[in-house]
From TrEMBL:
<dbReference type="Pfam" id="PF00153">
    <property type="entry name" value="Mito_carr"/>
</dbReference>
<keyword id="KW-0812">Transmembrane</keyword>
<feature type="transmembrane region" description="Helical">
    <location>
        <begin position="63"/>
        <end position="84"/>
    </location>
</feature>
<keyword id="KW-1133">Transmembrane helix</keyword>
<feature type="repeat" description="Solcar">
    <location>
        <begin position="1"/>
        <end position="49"/>
    </location>
</feature>
<dbReference type="InterPro" id="IPR023395">
    <property type="entry name" value="MCP_dom_sf"/>
</dbReference>
<dbReference type="GO" id="GO:0055085">
    <property type="term" value="P:transmembrane transport"/>
</dbReference>
<feature type="transmembrane region" description="Helical">
    <location>
        <begin position="21"/>
        <end position="43"/>
    </location>
</feature>
<dbReference type="InterPro" id="IPR018108">
    <property type="entry name" value="MCP_transmembrane"/>
</dbReference>
<dbReference type="InterPro" id="IPR002067">
    <property type="entry name" value="MCP"/>
</dbReference>
<feature type="repeat" description="Solcar">
    <location>
        <begin position="61"/>
        <end position="155"/>
    </location>
</feature>
<comment type="similarity">
    <text>Belongs to the mitochondrial carrier (TC 2.A.29) family.</text>
</comment>
<protein>
    <submittedName>
        <fullName>Mitochondrial citrate transport protein, putative</fullName>
    </submittedName>
</protein>
<keyword id="KW-0472">Membrane</keyword>
<dbReference type="GO" id="GO:0016020">
    <property type="term" value="C:membrane"/>
</dbReference>
<keyword id="KW-0677">Repeat</keyword>
<keyword id="KW-0813">Transport</keyword>
């Protein structure tokens, strides 16, 4: 639809005004804190559940355990907030009537209207349309975040212990 970023900016301002840059901001902001809280909650719960299994050693998760626990936490956390993520995406896509072949054009007047309209037109499961690729991405990235963080902490802790000896 646009041939360059500057053209996209000019056309968006011209056709929709500066507000077009903030479509989907409310659900995006409302999505961040609950998703983060859900991910950390699920990570802690799952870590406690796998304590004492082959995934753990000395009450600390091994790398594989971190990957498994992190991916499950990401999957569950994303699933909890996915309706807000879908709403954000649909609000951002409004005004792209030229995108033929990508499903019907969706129009709503804001976050709550989008949630209600989606449920009315597509049922409750419509709020979870496109969930699979989204949770796959969340599972992989969350697994990597927790694993890199935990392994970095272990390395720094062992370096600190060697220096104090």
């Amino acid at each position: 639809m646009y041939t360059s970023m500057p053209l996209a900016v000019r056309m968006m301002v011209k056709n929709e005004g500066y507000r077009s840059f903030f479509k989907g901001l409310t659900p995006a902001l409302l999505c961040v804190a609950p998703q983060t809280a859900a991910i950390f909650t699920f990570h802690n719960l799952i870590t406690k559940l796998v304590s004492g299994t082959r995934l753990t050693a000395d009450a600390e998760l091994k790398v594989f355990g971190n990957l498994v626990v992190g991916s499950l936490a990401g999957l569950l956390g994303k699933t909890v907030v996915y309706p807000l993520d879908l709403t954000r995406k649909r609000l951002q896509l409004q005004g792209f009537e030229g995108r033929k072949g990508f499903g019907e054009n969706f129009s709503c007047r804001g976050m709550f209207d989008c949630l209600i309209t989606t449920t009315q037109k597509e049922g409750f499961l419509g709020l979870y349309k496109g969930l699979s690729p989204s949770i796959l991405k969340a599972a992989v990235t969350t697994a990597l975040h927790f694993t890199v963080y935990d392994e970095t902490c272990k390395i720094l802790s062992s370096v600190r212990m060697k220096r104090s000896v």
